[in-house]
Amino acid sequence: MRTFKLTLSYDGSNYAGWQLQPHKPTIQAAVEAALTKITGETIRVAASGRTDAGVHALAQVASFTSLTQLSPATLRNALNAEMPRDIAALDVAEAPAGFHARRDCIRKRYRYLIHDGEAPDVFGRKYAWHYREPLDADAMSRAAQAFVGTHDFRSFEYRSPQRASSVRTIYEADARRVAGPFGAARDDGLDGIAFEVCGNGFLYNMVRAMVGTLVEVGRGMKSEKWPAEVIIAGDRRLAGMTAPPQGLFLVRVDYRRAPNDGG
After folding, report:
1. What residues contact 120, with CB distance under 8 A and at least 6 apart?
2. 52 has catalytic annotation
3. Active-site residue identified among 52, 104, 116, 191
């Protein structure tokens, strides 16, 4: 039995999230159907995390085992021929026996895009939260520093507790002005805000709750010290709203050991 590490990119707009669900299209279902057709085996794929409905991935990582004799490159090409066009296999690599995309993950990075302006962005509507009021990105960035460090993030968890512990470590958190999702095709300069966060793990809806909280700071309704107070309170009702899913992207997933390292 061989173990594989699969790196995927996908547009989550038309899916009910990663995880298998009855009578609903999911990323996992599409990937497993393609692998089953290619290998002739019933393949189960484990992801680094279960992205929600409407959430996207630039580089989601998944793992699976198979008896196939196909090379990793052939598997990648076959997957891209079989999967829907809004899912792409960026890489397939043989991994050490026992490698698991979720259990072996040590760090994840997410990015959330906000288009703040009166007129909606027709081309970016599926990839950013259109917020009609102007936001102060610098204030949001300063406020986001409260997230950095090891904290109990139950104030940012949907219907806590979902896990045995809501303590997580955030390594980086920042908000900055950027060109929109289709910035290369635009000529009107900077038109949005990107919030980027990197940590050892995230609770259900945690990043989107962080964004909703920072937006309250960005619109001047809360002080830059408020997110720190919300963390201490440990009460989801005191944080900002859960931002909509379409602005969220899983950017990358890091591992302690890499495929083919023998350990």
Report:
1. 130
2. yes
3. 52
Start-to-end CA distance of the chain, whole Å, equals: 17
Same domain, 238 and 142: yes
Let me know if residue 261 belongs to a domain.
no
Tens-place pLDDT, residues 153-190: 999 998 755 567 999 999 999 999 987 655 545 555 55
Q: Is 236 found in the same domain as 117?
A: yes
Confidence of residue 117 (pLDDT cuts 50, 70, 90): confident
The DSSP 8-state label assigned to residue 151 in this structure reads E
Angle between helices 137-144 and 206-218 (to 10 degrees): 130
Judged against a pLDDT cut of 50, whether residue 261 lies above it is answered with no
Domain that holds residue 75: 2-103
**String of DSSP letters for 69-112:** ---HHHHHHHHHHHS-TTEEEEEEEEE-TT--TTTTEEEEEEEE
242 and 193 share one domain = yes
Query: What confidence tier does 119 reach under pLDDT thresholds 50, 70, 90?
Result: confident
The answer to whether 11 touches 216, Cβ cutoff 8 Å, is no
Looking at 82, 103, 124, the residue that finishes a domain is: 103
